Amino acid sequence: MRTVVLDTNVLLADPGALLSFPDAEVVIPETVLGEIDKLKTSRVDPDLRFRGREVSRMLFEFSEGGSLLDGIDLPDGGRLRVVPLEGDIALPEGMTTRNADDRILAVAYQTCSDGCEDLTLVTNDLNMLLKAQTFGIKVERRLELGAGLGKRTIRWFQRYKTPLTILAIAIAVFAGVLALSFYTSRLTGTAGNGAVPTEFRDLLTAEQRNLLDGLMTLERSPADLEAMKQVANAYYALRDQTGSVQFAQKGIEYYSRYLQVNPDDTDVRTDMAALLFYSGSTDRAIQEATAVIEARPDHIQANFNLGIFYWRGRTDYQAGARQFVSVIDLATGSTDPHNEIIATEARGNLQTLITEAEAAGVTVDIEPSYLPGGTI
Predict the structure, then answer these.
(1) What is the pLDDT of residues 131-140, one digit of tens each?
(2) pTM
(3) In a domain, 374, yes or no
(4) Which segments of the chain does DSSP mark as H helices, in order?
(5) For position 92, which CATH number holds?
(6) Structural domain count, the chain
(7) Greatest Cα-to-Cα distance within the chain, rounded to the nearest angstrom
(8) Using one digit for the tens of pLDDT, what is the confidence trace for 95-122?
(9) Range of the domain at 27
(10) 3-state class of 368 per DSSP?
(11) Best exposed site among 22, 156, 214, 329 by fewest CB in 10 Å?
(12) Residue 15 belongs to a domain
């Protein structure tokens, strides 16, 4: 089992990172918990405080199953462990414990004291990334939840499900605030943020606030295209967090309304195709992704998603492989780091796809240079 050490910024970008490594032992340095705890009294963005509370809630719920210091089994596989920094550990020259970043890095080094081949530090901090590499520690970056790549790149597995008790509370609070908002707007004849007390808004996630604001705008201006897209994107993010088909279907509804007026928006059509796939409508997902590629053959995200649709939706290994090859070709020579990440994902998918095809007795015709480690 490999080991993954999570930096504070990764958890604050996406609390679901705790459940994103089902094949690994997930290590949380004790320093990370201290940094998250400081957010309770810090003057920071409400979204950041909410995500910090979400991490704390999840860890508290996990702790009911055992000691976090000893390690507990996660619901989707893998293990989770909180690791303090040992005071007597011998650190290499240049590594100190003077600040939080260095202590997190020291825990990663301490955890892989017998060899770092199976350990990866996950961080979005460039300085920590560079430092870790100088000490021979493997590093990965993880994009924020909802960022362009994270939202539009489809993986065949569901990346994150909120523990059910947390999810039930969050949705109940959201439903209550949503009902209060519309009731208040009807009483006062107003709509918008002002109809919702700030204290209630702070209970919501960023996605829930986006959905609330978009719906209230549409109540006032039903033809507002940006509000339609805002609502659809919020439903997309909520589906991503919960796996709810109902959220996917609502997102499709608002994307469809938007596309009736603005049919040439290929990014929105790509997102709708993803929700169609998530809701089980593989044929329609393929049709929409194909329409995007016909209009924009260089749309790397649509090509990637279409590969997933063929592979996981139809078990068409050759068609899926063809799309992943197209992604790698499109990303070759690109200076956009998002494209490089998609290409890396495509190579990994190709390797898994070919392994599955071989087990099924199917031969996939592909140049070895497109597989991980290959060069075009």
Answers:
(1) 888 888 888 8
(2) 0.55
(3) no
(4) 8-13, 30-38, 46-63, 100-111, 126-134, 148-152, 164-188, 198-201, 206-220, 225-242, 245-261, 266-278, 282-295, 300-308, 314, 317-331, 337-359
(5) 3.40.50.1010
(6) 1
(7) 67
(8) 777 788 888 888 888 888 666 678 889 9
(9) 2-142
(10) helix
(11) 22
(12) yes
